[in-house]
Amino acid sequence: MGMTFLNLGCGDPPCHAPEPWVNVDSYAGCEPDLLADLHALPHDTGSVEAVYMGHVLEHLEYLDVIPVLHEVKRVLEPDGMLCIVGPDYHRVVTKPEWAPWVDLVMHGDDTRPGAEHRWLPTASEHLRMVREVFPAAREIDIIAVSSFWPVVYRVGWEFAIINH
């Protein structure tokens, strides 16, 4: 059986991960490798080795985050790896040079359906929710994230959460 690495909520092609990653999104316009709803992934239980979610959870309805994380846990192998990266409002407001990104971190954008942020993204709130499903998850510095993960940008106002 081959390795399965999922880039969930892959977004538009500049954010697509190279093979062997499978780019998954629910919006056909971003041309994912696999069109799928994050609430019901078309993978067998325990069949996925690694899941990456870059700037994804804040685009879901707040009450949908935990169910989606449970779905991620379902498809992951028992010792599967998870990495979640996203924008942190508390960080982006700390430096004047990041001021141009404050509005984007708060609201997302209107480039396509689902691109808006449905709740204010912070590292602490993401970590709290991730730990409900993955108790061993921990935050690490975005710069320290292994090159294994298809992180597109590594800027100081982003957070990274890993579980492995």
Tell me what the structure shows.
- This protein has 164 residues and is an alpha/beta fold.
- It has one domain: Rossmann fold (3-Layer(aba) Sandwich), CATH 3.40.50.150.
- The protein has helices spanning 65-75, 89-92, 102-107, 123-133; strands spanning 5-8, 21-25, 34-35, 48-54, 76-87, 138-140, 158-163.
- A 7-stranded mixed beta sheet has the order 3-2-1-4-5-7-6.
- The longest helix is centred in the middle third of the chain and has 11 residues, at 65-75.
- The radius of gyration is 15 Å and the shape is globular.
Question: Summed up, what is this model?
Answer:
This protein is of the alpha/beta class. It has four helices and seven strands, in the order ββββαβαααββ.
What level of helicity do the residues show?
10-25%
Estimate the strand proportion.
15-25%
Number of domains: 1
Provide the CATH top-level class. Answer: Alpha Beta
Helix vs. strand class = alpha/beta
Q: So, the CATH homologous superfamily?
A: Vaccinia Virus protein VP39
Shape category:
globular
The arrangement of helices and strands along the chain is: EEEEHEHHHEE
Q: What is the overall pLDDT average?
A: 95
User: In what order do the strands lie side by side in the largest sheet?
Assistant: 3-2-1-4-5-7-6
Indicate the radius of gyration in whole angstroms.
15 Å
Number of helical elements: 4
Which architecture does the CATH hierarchy give at level 2? 3-Layer(aba) Sandwich
CATH fold-level topology: Rossmann fold
- Low-confidence runs (pLDDT<50, min 5 residues)? none
Largest sheet: 7 strands, mixed
Terminal-residue CA separation: 21 Å
